[in-house]
Write a structure and sequence with these properties.
single chain, 391 residues, alpha/beta, BirA Bifunctional Protein, domain 2, 2 domains, eight-stranded mixed beta sheet, three-stranded antiparallel beta sheet, 14 helices, 39% helix, 23% strand, elongated
């Protein structure tokens, strides 16, 4: 019986590894252009850090057996936030940081079996900017990432945006005893449970009206102003979309504002967003992020009132999109150097050295062959592009 990798993980083949490296390299080049500096958070960290003050449930963390509570990182933001408020505390703000690496999440399937979800991520963190200009930069950069990766309208990209304060605005008139269950009903879009709740009819009608508000940002904001009046939050969002919408239109990205959208990880205190693309009509979340000021405050000095925001991109999800997004993979030809029994390995490796000095990919067949026809057959079987036959 063949031994399989653990559930949730996979062995990547050379092609998949090459695509991953190409994608992460393209993103790294773009981050650097925007002034972001690379950091490398640890794969293993304390549960206290990884749980992000309750923002991430302990059950979602892959725990390790050690003398202190340790686990594998389910995301990289918490570890970077800690480093920003400790080792980089004296560096001038804003901090523009980026990182790429594998993250691990604990899951239990429908049969109750434990498995580990392993994913490659790349992302940025912008720390020290409390105003909405941070969100403007991040969303602008995220849209530029799509362009850099060649993701176009074929993938029907959609940017879904919510805001924790918008959600709180909807919940403000809800009695405390109903809030926990109502939050779950709102995020699950459970109209039946909300209609059957014991809330006051006027409050219930407002909630149901707000729940249906999702779509064009300006239209949603106008409806929210009718329901809750004008306020600073809605004015800030108008400013955000005034900058972001033209860029999104340029890249063929549809923007949806959803006041009831919340992230799976309870890290965010402000704007929350995720970017969705379709692969053969199946929606895939390829990026997510938001503002996490509270997370920064738990690691740093409360008196400094630090702030932070960022996003992460799922490299694996992008790799699984249609191959049109991966042009240029294997564009460099691969040369096989083979030789007859009248020649030697030393002759072949000398020829290989010449190719390598030109920056070309060349490999030597380690044993002498009986004929050129045999070498041509190896070209076909091994997927080489060109043969250098020595005889």
């Amino acid at each position: 019986m063949a031994i399989q990798p653990p559930l949730g993980t996979k062995d990547l083949n050379p092609k998949e590894v090459q695509i991953n490296k190409l994608l992460t390299s393209k993103l790294a080049d773009l981050y650097k252009q925007w002034g972001y500096e690379e950091v490398s958070p640890p794969n293993i960290d304390t549960l206290q850090t990884l749980m992000a003050d309750g923002g991430i449930a302990e059950k979602e963390i892959v725990k390790l057996i050690a003398d202190q509570p340790l686990g594998l990182r389910p995301e990289m933001t918490a570890s970077i936030a800690r480093a920003a408020t400790t080792r980089m505390a004296k560096r001038h703000r804003p901090l523009r940081l980026w990182a790429s690496g594998t993250v691990y999440k604990s899951k239990v399937d429908s049969n109750g079996k434990f498995n580990v979800e392993e994913k490659l991520q790349s992302g940025v963190e912008l720390i020290g900017i409390p105003s909405i200009t941070a969100e403007v930069e991040l969303l602008y950069l995220l849209l530029e990432c799509l362009n850099k990766l060649g993701i176009n309208q074929k993938g029907q990209p959609e940017l879904l945006i919510g805001h924790k304060s918008l959600f709180n605005l909807i919940m403000r008139d809800i009695p405390i005893g109903y809030r926990a269950s109502l939050q779950k009903d709102l995020t699950n879009f459970d109209l039946i449970k909300i209609k059957n709740s014991k809330l006051d009819n006027d409050i219930k009608a407002t909630i149901l009206r707000a729940l249906r508000l999702r779509g064009n940002p300006n239209e949603v904001i106008s409806e929210l102003e009718l329901l809750y009046g004008e306020n600073n939050l809605l004015n800030q969002l108008k400013r955000l979309f005034a900058v972001i919408e033209p860029i999104a239109n340029k890249h063929g990205v549809n923007i949806q504002l959803d006041p009831t959208y919340l992230s799976d990880f309870d890290l965010y205190t402000g704007i929350i967003f995720q970017l969705i693309c379709k692969n053969e009509y199946i929606p895939m979340v390829i990026a997510r992020g938001g503002r996490y000021d509270k997370l920064i405050s738990i690691f740093g000095d409360l008196e400094t009132n630090e702030s932070g925001a960022g996003f992460s991109i799922s490299i694996d999800s992008i790799r699984e999109l249609d191959n049109i997004y991966h042009r240029g993979i294997d564009s460099q030809k691969r040369i096989l150097i083979a030789y007859s029994k009248e020649k030697t390995y030393e002759d072949a490796i000398s020829k290989q050295s010449n190719y390598h000095s030109q920056g070309l990919i060349a490999m030597v067949e380690l044993e002498a062959l009986d004929s050129k026809a045999e070498a041509i057959e190896l070209i076909r079987k091994r997927g080489f592009d060109e043969l250098e036959w020595l005889e």
